[in-house]
Design a protein that fits this description.
5-stranded mixed sheet, GroEL, about 350 residues, 9 strands, two-stranded antiparallel ribbon, alpha/beta, elongated, about 45% helix, GROEL, domain 1
Length: about 350
């Protein structure tokens, strides 16, 4: 035998009571998060909670709250936003259903009404939705303004950054081009380009070049002989002859870069110091020891092909809007393409 108390019997007969209680808990927990004057929550351990998912996860709820918890979790996984609004809507729909049911309205009628209301709402949203053309900056700014209202992003400089990022990402034309944001004394700006952790091989090379042809090579070094010959360098003449031969090879390569109007070159391996000196005098930037992944990214974003230095031609070159390696600019030690 077992005891079955009246309160338990009532809960079994009317599970809507439990739904209502769980819904009210969620409503009370998340309602103060919503809107421009919404407040974050703090747990007993001092953790700050700022979104609906974290809040509903932190409160004690029974199994009847599972539908709301599952919906909020999926919303967060898919979009990372809107969890407060969703938790609030669902909890209040359940609360309203409970009130209608308590007033004598059959639950099937309530559910049918909710379904019809959802269909009408979806139809209204569809009718009101319009495509924003790429050049309609004013409409885009209005959407951003209303989307971030009341949040930490509700500030003109931040909204401008969001706008510029959307304008580029809406129709990207190149692979692996990132939207970079750089903060400074004058605020934050969007940089459409690459930011790579490499520096010029010589400080006397240009810090910045504009609208430049670029080349990608495996290495910049004198060609080694194909014959296994031992040269006994015991005299100055022999040493000078070998050194001059190597310098001529490097000079020929640098002169070819000048003829093709190349302003920057990226090398997978080291750049011979003698070649670097010649490049600096000709106003050519040089970056060395570029890893394979970055070489691929540079190639895909600029159109340049990696080749052997002796076989380079016009068809192997790429184009870059700006390369900036100056310390005072945002892309410190980087390669920025705009």
């Amino acid at each position: 035998m077992f005891n079955l108390y009246k309160n338990e019997m009532q809960q079994v007969r009317k599970p809507t009571n439990l739904w209502y209680k769980e819904a009210k808990k969620i409503d009370m927990a998340v309602s103060t998060l919503l809107g421009p004057y919404g407040m974050y929550k703090m747990t007993e351990s001092g953790e700050i909670l700022s979104n609906g998912k974290d809040v509903v996860d932190s409160i004690e709820l029974g199994p009847m709250a599972e539908p709301i918890l599952d919906a909020v979790s999926k919303q967060y996984e898919e979009f990372g936003d809107g969890t407060v609004s969703l938790a609030l809507i669902l909890s209040r729909l359940i609360s309203k259903a409970y009130e209608l049911s308590k007033g004598g309205m059959p639950m099937p009628t309530i559910l049918s009404g909710y379904k019809k209301a959802m269909e009408i709402a979806a139809e209204v949203v569809k009718e009101e939705t319009r495509k924003i053309e790429r050049g309609d900056i004013k409409a885009l700014e209005e959407v951003i303004k209303h989307s971030v209202a009341g949040s930490v992003a509700d500030d003109e400089p931040i909204r401008s950054v969001i706008r510029d990022a959307i304008l580029f990402l809406k129709e990207p034309k190149e692979k692996d081009i990132a939207i970079l944001t750089e903060g400074g004394e004058e605020g934050t700006e969007v940089i459409i380009g690459l930011k790579l952790d490499y520096n010029r091989v010589r400080d006397d090379m240009p810090e910045k070049v504009y609208d430049a042809k670029i080349a990608i090579v495996d290495k910049i070094a004198p060609k080694k002989t194909n014959f296994d010959i031992k040269i006994d360098i015991t005299g100055r003449k022999a040493y000078r002859a070998l050194s001059e031969m190597e310098r001529n090879q490097l000079r020929e390569f640098v002169n070819k870069l000048v003829e093709m109007d190349v302003k920057a070159i990226f090398s997978k391996e080291e750049i011979d110091p003698r070649a670097a000196e010649m490049m600096a005098k000709k106003g050519i930037m040089g970056f060395e020891k570029i890893n394979e992944g970055d070489m691929k990214t540079i190639s895909e974003s600029t159109g340049a092909s990696k080749v052997n230095m002796l076989g380079i031609s016009e068809k192997d070159l790429g184009f870059i809007g700006i390369i900036d390696d100056s310390k005072e600019e945002g892309c410190v030690g980087g390669v920025c393409r705009t």
